[in-house]
């Protein structure tokens, strides 16, 4: 992949992206859907705007990963 | 949340037994509540420590200061949780909802810590570093030069002053988004939206000038903003 490809990927936006506030508002629900279906397909199907956001927003993706690990470590 | 993203419920079942117990204990009074608060604080502290450890290498905090940050995160998360307990709607396990608070506290505190580092001094934007961000090595002289020139021109010609400032700080200078939000008295969401619009404009401009391949969706600027509630 060239630098231009990387740049193009970085600049690409998804109109379904809901933004940080909405993504964080339901992050706990999204995380539990991922725990139920580790592929993430069900979470992305239910919340496509959140899935799109987490692919583009580094800080929210970081919070998502942290919450996923914390919730996974908790007994069901 | 967009209406067509579906209801914000997980399994659709009622609260699990443990969630019910948490809500009962924390919503009550006396020793049972105090015990629940102490137990929850311990759990939040464990998550805060784990989260700071997971992010090690991406922040400069170490040693006693790291544990202090974990305690601050757990303390503040506990305060927020108790203040918002009546707003918990049982959409997830109680602990997952509660852990979200402490993870976000860790993020916020690391953002504040960015500006406390003595090494932080944001001089004029160093555009020469931009190609590194996109994986171009020092040997790619011509491509580096072209990329810098094209992006810099698009930034200057296409973006508003606010978009230029945010894009340059985050992409060229490498300021974390949360840290920039603090510096500008803004929010993560607001700056993300600014960056979203800037990225869309830049991609369209670079595609129009033949640097990037644009899809039909990306070339149409109108009506392509982030979805709003």
Quick structural overview:
The complex is a heterodimer of chains A (76) and B (229). Chain A is mainly α and 76 residues long.
Describe this structure in words.
The complex is a heterodimer of chains A (76) and B (229). Chain A has one domain. Helices cover 72% and strands 0% of the residues of chain A. Chain A has helices at 3-11, 20-25, 27-36, 41-46, 48-56, 58-72. In chain A, α3 (27-36) packs across α6 (58-72) and α5 packs across α6 (58-72). The longest helix of chain A has 15 residues, at 58-72. Chain A is elongated, with a radius of gyration of 13 Å. Helix content of chain B is 63%, strand content 0%. Chain B has 10 helices and no strands. In chain B, α2 crosses α4 (94-114) and α3 packs across α4 (94-114). Chain B is elongated and about 70 Å long. Classes of the chains: A mainly alpha (76), B mainly alpha (229). At the A-B interface, α1, α2, α3, α5 and α6 of A face α2, α4, α6 and α9 of B.
Record keyword descriptors for this entry.
heterodimer; A: about 80 residues; mainly alpha; 6 helices; B: about 230 residues; Rna Polymerase Sigma Factor, Chain: A; Arc Repressor Mutant, subunit A; 2 domains; 10 helices; about 0% strand
Low-confidence stretches of chain A: none
Task: Tell me, rounded to a whole number, the average pLDDT of chain B.
Answer: 87
Task: List low-pLDDT spans of chain B.
Answer: none
**Overall tally of domains of chain B:** 2
Number of strands of chain B: 0
CATH level 1 class label of the largest domain in chain B:
Mainly Alpha
Shape of chain B: elongated
Hey, roughly how much beta strand do the residues of chain A contain? Answer: under 5%
Shape of chain A: elongated
Number of helices of chain B: 10
H/E element sequence of chain A: HHHHHH
Which fold name is given in CATH as the topology of the largest domain in chain B? Rna Polymerase Sigma Factor, Chain: A
**Biggest interchain interface, per-side counts:** A-B, 49 and 60 residues
**Helix/strand/pairing category of chain B:** mainly alpha
- How much is the average pLDDT of chain A? 95
**How can the largest sheet of chain A be summarized?**
none
């Amino acid at each position: 992949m060239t630098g231009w490809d990387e740049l193009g990927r970085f600049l690409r936006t998804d109109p379904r992206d809901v933004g940080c506030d909405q993504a964080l508002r339901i992050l706990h629900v999204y995380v539990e859907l991922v725990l139920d279906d580790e592929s993430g397909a069900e979470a992305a199907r239910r919340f496509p705007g959140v899935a799109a956001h987490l692919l583009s927003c580094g800080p929210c993706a970081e919070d998502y990963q942290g919450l996923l690990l914390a919730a996974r470590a908790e007994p069901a | 949340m967009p209406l067509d993203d579906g209801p914000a419920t997980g399994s659709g079942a009622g609260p699990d037994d443990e969630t019910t117990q948490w809500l009962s204990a924390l919503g009550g009074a006396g020793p049972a509540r105090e015990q629940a608060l102490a137990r929850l604080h311990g759990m939040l502290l464990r998550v805060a420590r784990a989260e700071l450890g997971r992010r090690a290498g991406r922040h400069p905090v170490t040693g006693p200061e790291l544990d202090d940050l974990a305690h601050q995160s757990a303390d503040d998360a506990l305060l927020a949780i108790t203040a918002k307990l009546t707003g918990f709607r049982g959409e997830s396990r109680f602990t997952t909802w509660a852990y979200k608070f402490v993870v976000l506290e860790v993020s916020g505190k690391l953002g504040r810590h960015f500006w406390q580092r003595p090494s932080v001094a944001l001089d004029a934007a160093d555009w020469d570093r931009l190609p590194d961000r996109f994986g171009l090595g020092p040997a790619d002289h011509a491509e580096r030069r072209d990329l810098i020139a094209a992006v810099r021109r698009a930034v200057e010609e296409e973006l508003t002053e606010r978009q230029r400032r945010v894009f340059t700080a985050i992409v060229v200078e490498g300021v974390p988004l949360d840290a920039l939000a603090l510096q500008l008295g803004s929010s993560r969401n607001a700056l993300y939206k600014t960056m979203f619009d800037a990225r869309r404009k830049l991609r369209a401009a670079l595609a129009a000038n033949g640097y990037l391949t644009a899809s039909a969706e990306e070339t149409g600027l109108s009506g392509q903003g982030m979805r709003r509630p």
